Amino acid sequence: MAANLPRNMVFGSFAVAGFVTLLALLDIIVQVPFAGSTIMDILFILSAGIVGYLGWDAYKDMS
To answer: What is the value of pTM for the model shown?
Structure first.
């Protein structure tokens, strides 16, 4: 059970990064969830990309 924890954390970071990207894109296109500024949405997408890359790099190191 504990052996799968790091792998589950990496998959969780993938899921969170994808969810943040989806919400930011939805906010840019439809302006539904937040109706906020586009600059913040772009920064959210960039930060989700960084988290996704770091998760991918960590997953690659585990294999």
So the answer is: 0.85
